Every structure is written in structure tokens, then in C-alpha cells.
# Entry
Amino acid sequence: MRVPNSVVLPVGTHVDCCREEEVEEKRRDIMAKIAAMLAERKSNLAHFIDNLEGSEEPEFYVDQWERLKEMESCMLTILNLVAVNCTDHRDTKKLEAAILEHVKNEDLFPEVIRVLPPVYRQVEAAIVDIAQSEEMADHGMMDLQYLLSKLSQCEHLSNLGRELLQDILRYLHRIGLVVWYEEIKHLESTVFLQPTFLITMFKLLVRYRLVQQLESIS
# Structure
């Protein structure tokens, strides 16, 4: 909701736990709840903006107003939910095919036809090699400046500058190869070369009924 022009593909799992007639009913219910959530968000943002604009001294709230207007402009494209049985390999392939079909849709992703400079592919390949090397820690975290020095050791990347590397990292972050939170001050100098590590960490920290599980520990 905070990324401009986001495209979201809802995925419903555990189809094997539902009767066949339930799947479509649940699909409609989920999509309706998503639509209601987005409508409520739009209404709340408009309400907050109106309150700031109608305040006695609106000039004191310019920063908040600009942030709310920015959030208001972040439009979501919600695709039709894909229901899958994760225990069935055929359903996994069906999900993969659906994702690829959407990603290749130029109306959804205009950048899919973008031609990248060769250096982008060279840096991408070099980062993959570094991430898979034996010296790379399991967490895959690396200091940005150290990553630049490692890449500069490659013969064809000896002239790689920090600014160009940052541009390439933004691209690699968008396609999911790496994770780089450049907008978070405490993380702007750290690149996660193993995004799956973050997924594992979040699965441990963010889980259903976490508070109840912690409270059950004596």
C-alpha cells in the first residue's frame, strides 16, 4: 500500500481442506473483503487530509499533508485470487504459470520491455556468485561499501562506482534478487544477498497467535 502502482496477486492455499463448492465462495468473500479494505483506506485518507486542510493553522501540518497525499496516490492493482493446493505439484505449476503470465503483461508492468545495459547483467551475475560462495555467511548480509569493493575486484567491473551500483541494486531489489532498504536509515548501508533469510526470520517473529504462544511458556 506504500509502493506506487503496486500489483498484488492474492493466493489462497489449503484448497485441499475445502469442499469443491466452498472454493469459489471463499474466493468471492476474500476479494470482497480486499475491496472493502481498500475502500475504507481511501475514505480514511480523505478524512485525514480534509481535517488537516480544515485546521486553523494548516501550514504547520504541511509535512503530514504531503505524506498523506503521497499515500493517497499509491494505487493498488488487485488481480484475481489464485486458489491452490500446496500438496499438489500441478497446482504449484499452475500458480507459477499465472505469475509469469501477469509479469509478462506490459499493461501491468511497463518495465518488462526495458532494455538493460550489459553492466546490470554483469553485476547481477557477480552478486549471485558472491551469494553462493563459501565465504558468504548464511544470513547473506553485506555492507554496501564492502560489496562494492568485492564487485570492483572483477575485471569487467573495476570501474563500477557507488552511484551506479545503487541504481543496479534498486533494480535487483525490485525483481527480488536482493533486498536493500535504502530508505531506512539504519539499514541503508546493508544489502541482503539472501532474501530467503529474511523470510525465515519473519516466519519466526511474525506468526499467528504469537502472543498466546509466548504466554503459554512458563
Notes: The radius of gyration is 22 Å. The longest helix spans residues 20-53.
